[in-house]
């Protein structure tokens, strides 16, 4: 089973918010209480096709967005056709009235100031700049050692062959403009369910700060993002 099939299996068998395991007929997550997406029917089939083709899934909201885009495109096409039809029937277009433009007044020529002898002026020392130390590359950000806090979980992958997919998703999140993006091994943190690679963004001191940034992560294409405490 390749990485995308693993991602499909993870979507059908785990909670998209907290990564807890689930049964096919289970309606609510036993860990976080989320209403779980259906795993049978037309929408789940489209979800699996998307993951097999793209490698990641932004959320079920994408289908509503695509339908809205199609309707908007159809409306624009209809407007263009209607405009061409009206022009062909001989409609008369009236040119707007001419607008008079007043020439600007001439700007008086500035007088050249007297030359100043700069040979006796003190010379300021050259500023010394130190290059800041290079931090971790975005997409490979490392959670601060021995630090507790809050973050935003983008996607979780099972540890079985899930690390390449987690790194690909982290790189994509970094390219979308999210900051401090990295991958956590959930088995190392008491606040997370063990057995997953967790793609996260941001380090926040309080839950309120993380909650306020969830909307930014969802606008970047990660519709299932949610805040989560990180503690050892």
CATH overall fold name of the largest domain = Alpha-Beta Plaits
What fraction strand? Answer: 5-15%
How do the helices and strands follow one another from N- to C-terminus?
HHHEHEEHE
> How would you characterize the largest beta sheet?
4 strands, antiparallel
Which stretches of 5+ consecutive residues score pLDDT under 50?
none
Number of strands: 4
- Count of alpha/pi helices: 5
CATH architecture level-2 label of the largest domain? 2-Layer Sandwich
Strands of the largest sheet, in order across it?
2-3-1-4
Write down the overall geometry: flat
What do we call the CATH homologous superfamily of the largest domain?
Sporulation related repeat
CATH class of the largest domain, please?
Alpha Beta
Mean pLDDT: 78
Whole-number total of structural domains: 3
Distance linking N and C termini: 33 Å
Q: Radius of gyration in whole Å, from Cα?
A: 29 Å
As a percent range, the share of helical residues equals 25-40%
Give your account of this protein's structure.
This protein has 232 residues and is of the alpha+beta class. The chain has 3 domains: 3-58, no CATH class; 59-88; 149-230, Alpha-Beta Plaits. It has 5 helices and 4 strands. The protein has helices at 3-13, 42-54, 61-88, 163-175, 207-219; strands at residues 149-158, 181-185, 196-204, 226-230. Strands 2-3-1-4 form a 4-stranded antiparallel beta sheet.
């Amino acid at each position: 089973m390749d990485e995308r099939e693993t991602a499909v299996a993870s979507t059908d068998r785990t909670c998209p918010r907290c990564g807890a395991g689930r049964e096919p007929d289970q309606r609510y997550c036993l860990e976080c209480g989320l209403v779980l997406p259906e795993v049978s029917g037309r929408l789940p089939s489209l979800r699996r096709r998307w993951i097999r083709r793209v490698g990641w899934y932004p959320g079920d909201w994408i289908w509503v967005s695509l339908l809205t885009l199609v309707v908007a495109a159809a409306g624009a096409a209809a407007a263009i056709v209607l405009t061409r039809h009206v022009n062909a029937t001989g409609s008369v277009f009236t040119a707007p009235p001419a607008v008079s433009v007043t020439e600007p007044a001439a700007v008086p020529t500035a007088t050249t100031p007297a030359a100043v002898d700069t040979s006796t002026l003190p010379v300021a020392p050259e500023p010394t700049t130190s290059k800041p130390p290079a931090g971790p590359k975005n997409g490979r950000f490392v959670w601060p050692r021995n630090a507790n806090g809050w973050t935003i979980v983008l996607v979780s992958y099972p540890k079985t062959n899930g690390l390449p997919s987690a790194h690909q998703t982290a790189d994509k999140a970094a390219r979308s403009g999210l900051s401090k993006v990295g991958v956590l091994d959930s088995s190392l943190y008491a606040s997370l369910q063990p057995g997953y690679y967790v793609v996260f963004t941001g380090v926040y001191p309080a839950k309120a700060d993380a909650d306020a940034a969830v909307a930014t992560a969802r606008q970047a294409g990660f519709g299932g993002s949610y805040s989560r405490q990180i503690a050892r």
